[in-house]
User: Fold Lipoprotein-releasing system ATP-binding protein LolD from Pelagerythrobacter marensis.
Amino acid sequence: MSEPVVRLAGLSRSFQQGGVSIDVLRGIDLEIAPGEIVALLGPSGSGKSTMLQAVGLLEGGFGGTIEIAGTKASALPSDGRTRVRREHLGFVYQFHHLLPDFNAEENVILPQLVAGKGRDEAAERARELLTALGLAQRLDHRPSQLSGGEQQRVAVARALANRPTLVLADEPTGNLDEHTADGVLEQFLGLVRGEGSAALVATHNERLAAKMDRVLRLHEGLLE
Ligand SMILES: Nc1ncnc2c1ncn2[C@@H]1O[C@H](COP(=O)(O)OP(=O)(O)OP(=O)(O)O)[C@@H](O)[C@H]1O
Assistant:
């Protein structure tokens, strides 16, 4: 079998609150296979975002080991983690975090330029993704000129622009009404599958989770 895109061993995280230590993650073991789409379910406060932050190499303070695409990222200094993040990971958040002064196409081009791609190639890739997401007529719209569902679609295109090995999505449709959320999630999953990326998607929503390849449940700091 090919190497997992994520391998967690004994992942733990505690926070100090008012002199009390709260153990949010208590030794999580997990492997995600290439191309696998995994839902991370759990009630509010169960630690889903904390777990995505660990896998996304966005913060320190975690115990255990985090491997991304065969690299033991948790053992790397900050610049090494940044490199792994840029090479392998894409992010979608509940709120789109698009750059307000740039249009849809430019928002998808920019991370590719940061990754060293040429402008023409990056623009072609941006148009390909935005067209696949039904936004061919919205390329030159700024985020404020787009609906919530359209903003999230641009955020999906941005996350996939550099062909990540793994997409991390934290409540990617949590800010949308049910009908729009369903549409955006279907497109997101279709595109991720088509691209062959793996995904780890945190959600409260059982119905959306059921559309994914595997469902993990976070309960009292462990996966059920
Ligand atoms: N920086 C922090 N300092 C202190 N406590 C924190 C910090 N970040 C998270 N926590 C605590 O860790 C627990 C898990 O939070 P987390 O945001 O990971 O949960 P979640 O499952 O993503 O919740 P939600 O679905 O509401 O986003 C919460 O009790 C939260 O208060």
Summary: Residues 33-60+77-217 form a domain with the Rossmann fold fold (CATH 3.40.50.300). The chain has a mean pLDDT of 94. The two ends are 24 Å apart (CA to CA). The chain has one domain: 33-60+77-217.
